[in-house]
Every structure is written in C-alpha cells, then in structure tokens.
Design brief:
- This protein is of the alpha/beta class.
- It has helices at about 25-30, 80-105, 120-130, 150-165, 170-180, 220-225, 225-240, 250-260, 280-285, 300-310, 340-350, 360-365, 370-385; strands at about 5-10, 35-45, 55-60, 65-70, 110, 130-135, 165-170, 210-215, 245-250, 270-275, 290-295, 315-320, 330-335.
- The two termini are about 15 Å apart.
Length: about 375
C-alpha cells in the first residue's frame, strides 16, 4: 500500500452554508487522510455572499480543504442554470490551480457523488491524465423516490461513471438503482464510514430495554416520523416506563407539528432535542438500549452503523442500505410502513425476550470503521495506479 496525493472532489460537503450537508463525505476524507495526503476541493453558490467569489483554505482533521464560494443569482432561469454550471466549472479550475501551486499535482482524484463534481474529475482525466474513482450516495437513484432526472444530467452522469476507474456506491442496493438508470461502470461497493474514535461502545452491558433513540433530519416523507410516533404512542400506552428520545438535525418545531398531526397522547414519554454535537449523539447512543428507524427509504443509513458501533441493537424498517441486513443477533427488521410490526418489535425488545449479541453487533460495525474504509480505498487507488 503506497501513500498517494489525493484530490478529493465533493458535490456535497459541510460548509458555512450548511454545516451537515455531505458530512458522510467529510468522514471519508478524514479516513483517507489517516494514510494519504488529502486536499478537498468544493465549490458552492452562496446566496448571502458579499463578494463575487471567495476562496477559503483551511486545514482540519489531517487534510487540507479549499472551498470556493460564489455569489448565487437571485432568480433561476434556464440561461442562469447553464451559466451557473459554467461558473461551477470555472471556480473548480481556480481552486485546482491553488491546490497545484501549494501542494502539487495529485496522483489520483477521488470524486464524491458523480454529478456535478465528476465533470471536473473527467476534465482532469482527459486533459491532465489524472485518473479518478467516484463514490456515490444519492438517493435519487432509488426508483421508489420517483425523482425525475433530466436527460442531460443523466447523459453526463453516465459519461462520468463510464470513464471512472471505479464507481463505488455505498451499498449493493444503490448500485442496482444506478444500473436501472443505465449507469454502467466498474463497480466496487465501499460502505459509508463511521468515526469509531467517537462512536464506540460503553463498558456497561445493555441498559434498560425501554429507552429508545432516533436520530435524523426528521423529514416525514423520508424517515416516516409520523408512523414511528403512532407505533410508539400505542406502545407507550402499554408500557408506561418506555422512553423515546428524538434528535433532529432540523427544527424541533417540525417534530412537534408531526406529533400534533398524529394526536400523540404520551408526550411525557417523548423527548425532542435539536441538533447535537457528534460527541453528544454518540453519548446518547451509548446510553440508549435500542436505536429506532422507520424510514421509507435509505441509501445506507449511517445512524444505524453508528448505533451498532456504540454496541446497541436497532429496530429498523427494511428500506434499503443497511436495513437489508436481517440478523436477529444485531436487531429486528420490520416491514416498511407496517406500524403493527413496529409496535410488536418494541414490545419484544421491552420484554427482554430477545437476546442481542453485543459481539455480533460490534463485529458488524467493524466493517464501517475508519481504518477498514481507508484500507478499502487504498487498495482501489493502488489498482488504479498500477493499471
């Protein structure tokens, strides 16, 4: 395994505009930087920008980061969208020039999310002979989302994938969805990464089996918060000691609105918290007895992997990604949208009848650890650069 200079392009990445957007890409960068020299390049339109363009260079968590902010247009027209794409490309070139001058020519480009940043990866390959691989997370390829992908975008995405040395969806489920859109490539599954220096198990055995936890953006169309609350409310009627903590990345008012919509009857058994530092999320997981996820769809479900890394089991709806794993030693899988099954699973966990295996949970979690993911990508880099 050789150390490489890696240019890390990201269609999504945390910035001052949205601190959590693409945070899974950020974790990939941190993992890869454990062994390689990594420079992240991200370009984003900023509606609050006071300058036409602002380039911010920082160093964090072992890697360098160059973010190019450019002023967003007030109105979007077809012409402005074309112009915006041109400006994206222009500012990627500016950012890349800074990287070349400061840190030299990259050995390989690691693109994250095929479109749009993959266009610049393709440009670097064609004009500068720098090979690239591309990781993919986007839920838009999951057919049941019914998202319309424009013909031009789809054509460009297919081209980016075809010219990548490796296309790395985070799950087989996502690869299948991409292939249904005619996106062909040299596929290799590499799962999302969990920061196991933060998400680790407590030294205690399982806690009280009636303390449940949910963490997400709490978008009801995605996470089915209303269905989860109805099932838990019925369970709370049955088990008055049960507790559910919900941590939302968005507004707590949105969760309260969903509670009102389902006429939630047991508010004393529910705690709703706003965004927490990642260390606090991990602490909540270590103190919970079981993680709860009732989504309509998932590409991967990092929060389930994080819960397993903390040594706790999960109840989850089968809806893609890690939720396709059906191992009673590490959790209970329920049918998507089936509130009765979720209610039954809650009762099963609270009864103590199900004996989860902490060793099995942690063995599963090791697949997503920082070192494991870094080694998977390092092996792919070596294969690319030996070709």
């Amino acid at each position: 395994m050789s150390k490489r200079n890696v240019l890390f392009l990201a269609s999504w990445f945390p910035t001052r505009i949205h601190e959590t957007s693409g945070n899974f890409n950020e974790k990939f960068a941190e993992a890869i930087a454990m062994f390689h020299q990594v420079v992240v390049l991200h370009v984003i339109a900023d509606s609050d920008a006071t300058k036409k363009v602002e380039i911010v260079t920082t160093e964090q968590d072992g890697y360098k980061k160059v973010v190019v902010y450019f002023r967003k247009r007030k109105k979007e027209s077809i012409f402005n969208k074309i112009q915006k794409t041109y400006r994206y490309f222009k500012y990627y070139r500016q950012g890349y020039q800074i990287i070349r001058e400061k840190w030299g020519r990259p050995d390989i480009v690691h693109n994250n999310v095929l479109f749009p940043s993959g266009l610049f990866a393709l440009y670097l390959k064609k004009l500068h002979k720098i090979p690239y691989i591309s990781t993919e997370h986007w839920t838009g390829y999951l057919s049941y989302r019914n998202l319309a992908i424009g013909r031009l975008r789809l054509k460009l995405t297919r081209t980016i994938a075809r010219h990548a040395h490796w296309v790395c969806p985070v799950t087989e489920h996502l690869q299948y969805g991409m292939e249904q859109f005619g996106i062909q490539g040299n596929y290799s599954i590499v799962p999302n990464v969990v920061d196991d220096t933060v998400f680790y198990p407590s030294t205690d055995s399982f806690n009280n089996p009636i303390h449940f936890l949910h963490v997400s953006n709490c978008k009801d169309s995605h996470k089915n918060i209303s269905g989860m609350l109805r099932a838990f409310d019925n369970f709370a009627d049955f088990e008055k000691r049960a507790e559910l903590t919900i941590i939302t990345e968005e507004s707590v008012d949105d969760v309260y609105a969903i509670m009102a919509g389902v006429s939630f009857r047991n508010p004393a058994q529910l705690k709703v918290l706003g965004r927490q530092a990642i260390e606090m999320v991990a602490e909540f997981m270590r103190k919970a007895s079981c993680f709860l996820l009732f989504s309509n769809f998932e590409t991967f479900s990092v929060v389930v992997a994080e819960a397993w890394s903390c040594g706790i089991p999960a109840i989850y709806s089968r809806c893609g990604g890690l939720t396709e794993i059906n191992n009673p030693a590490i959790g209970i899988q329920v049918t998507k949208g089936d509130e009765q099954e979720l209610f039954d699973a809650l009762r099963t966990v609270s009864s103590g009848e199900t004996h989860f295996d902490r060793s099995a949970i942690l063995n599963q979690a090791r697949e997503y650890g920082m070192v494991a993911i870094q080694e998977k990508f390092s092996a792919l880099y070596d294969q690319v650069l030996k070709d």
